[in-house]
Design goal:
The chain is about 35% helix and about 25% strand. It is an alpha+beta fold. It folds into 3 domains: about 160 residues, ATP-grasp fold, B domain (D-amino Acid Aminotransferase, Chain A, domain 1, 2-Layer Sandwich); about 80 residues, 2-Layer Sandwich (Dna Ligase, domain 1); about 150 residues, Succinyl-CoA synthetase domains (Rossmann fold, 3-Layer(aba) Sandwich). It starts with a helix and ends with a helix. Bound molecules: guanosine-5'-diphosphate (GDP) and manganese (II) ion.
Length: about 400
């Protein structure tokens, strides 16, 4: 699950990391009020679109304002703006930082290495993928120990190699804090870009430099969310894909893919096998979909809606192995779903196991196309999809 910058910053703050204060505004008037408060401590405020996509700066979603009135008009241009398909519904307002230099620092789950990987670069601010592609030597990496976490010497090594020797203590604290943030929340990514040296008025009124997290991106491991019920509050209903939201509400395991053959299967293993067989028959699955055990008719109908929400779907392959799930229940669900279907798509059904005979009768009466074996079903579905895309 991706979370908004403001929420990611809350997780960083909870680990004691240096994050400039901020407020979240949903209207230009709220942005103005926030700016009134924050401009007592800075010359300008920065107004940032809160959307779950990167590159907001480049898209015009990050702007400075020097007065409450300007904050209001600037917020008015950013709110409602669409960035990479996401509509901006809220903005973050913060005292604008006087940036001396921008760095990049992230902690990411390295699945192959089975460790947390720290990545740092003195080339911050820009997209790290670009740095990685053009100048891979500009990125320094180090693995945290799975038992000991990130040790001090490791944090110092990465800080020196990033050119942050002048901010060593702060850099070490931040690097270690990223790893703690990751472990405390079961995150799979904690990214600070930019991590910035900023100029501020020190305690004596003289300018002083400080290392702060100006941006934050955190993605949480969905499979571990049950361990952090409080993080559910960070789920942004405005930005969640409606199809994903419906799948979650219906208790269906659904992953959208790029192909043309919608698959409805019970059981994760059978769903994977079905996708393999679709591929072997020369097709591409449009999704992974596991309706789970004991699915009733309404769940089948919900699964059908999810599949048909994808305009690329040209054929549907239903593969049910009845155990706890009863074949006739699924057949009823399919009949009901077809009655509500907004789009005509060929469907090939294979139901075996519990109440398969009853299912076959129902499907025959409703004139469904069926298949006796899984291979036959996959071949028929692929042929139907090809015929549909040729038509
Ligand atoms: P992103 O483009 O979505 O990654 O959004 P960021 O929060 O990283 O902002 C993009 C860029 O805007 C940063 O790299 C900075 O150059 C600039 N920026 C962000 N916050 C401030 C700020 O407080 N002051 C100044 N001067 N620039 C900022
Ligand atoms: Mn950024």
């Amino acid at each position: 699950m991706k979370i908004q910058e403001a929420d990611a910053k809350r997780l960083l703050l909870a680990q004691g990391l240096p994050v400039p204060e901020w407020e979240v505004a949903r209207t230009p008037a709220e942005a103005r009020a926030a700016a009134e408060r924050l401009l007592t401590r800075a010359d300008k405020v920065v107004i940032k679109a809160q959307v779950l996509v990167g590159g907001r700066g480049k898209a015009g979603g990050v702007k400075l304002a020097g007065s409450p009135a300007e904050a209001e008009t600037t917020a008015a241009t950013i709110l409602g703006m669409s960035i990479k398909g996401s509509v901006v519904r809220k903005v973050l307002v913060a005292p604008a930082a006087d940036i001396v230099r921008e760095y990049y620092l992230s902690a990411v789950l390295d699945r192959a290495g089975r460790r947390i990987l720290l990545m740092g670069s003195a080339e911050g601010g820009v997209e790290i993928e670009q740095v990685a592609a053009e100048r891979p030597d500009a990125i320094v990496t180090i693995h945290a120990d799975p038992l000991l976490g990130l040790e001090d010497w490791q944090a110092r090594t990465i800080a020196f190699r990033m050119g942050l020797g002048g901010q060593l203590k702060a850099a070490v604290a931040i690097a270690k804090g990223l790893v703690r943030t990751m472990l405390a929340n079961d995150a799979d990514l904690v990214e600070i870009n930019p991590l910035a040296i900023v100029r501020e008025a020190g305690a004596d009124g003289q300018p002083a430099e400080r290392l702060v997290c100006l941006d934050a991106k955190v993605t949480l491991d969905d499979s571990a969310l049950y361990r952090h019920p409080e993080l559910e509050a960070f789920r942004d209903p405005d930005e969640e894909d409606p199809v994903d939201a419906e799948a979650r509400a219906a208790g269906i395991n659904f992953i959208h893919l790029d192909g043309t053959i919608g698959c409805m299967v019970n059981g994760a293993g059978l769903a994977m096998t079905t996708m393999d067989l679709v591929k072997r028959a020369g097709g591409e699955p449009a999704n992974f979909l596991d309706i789970g055990g004991g699915a009733k008719a309404d769940k089948v109908a919900a699964a059908m809606r999810l599949i048909l929400a994808d305009p690329k779907v040209e054929a549907i392959l239903v593969n049910i192995f009845g155990g706890i799930t009863r074949g006739d229940e699924v057949a009823h669900g399919l009949i009901e779903a077809r009655g509500q279907q907004v789009r005509e798509v060929p469907m090939i059904v294979r139901i075996v196991g519990t109440n398969a005979t009853e299912a076959a009768e129902l499907l025959r009466a409703a004139r469904f196309e069926t298949a006796a074996s899984l291979d036959e079903a996959a071949e028929k579905a692929v042929a139907a999809a090809k015929a549909a895309s040729a038509a």
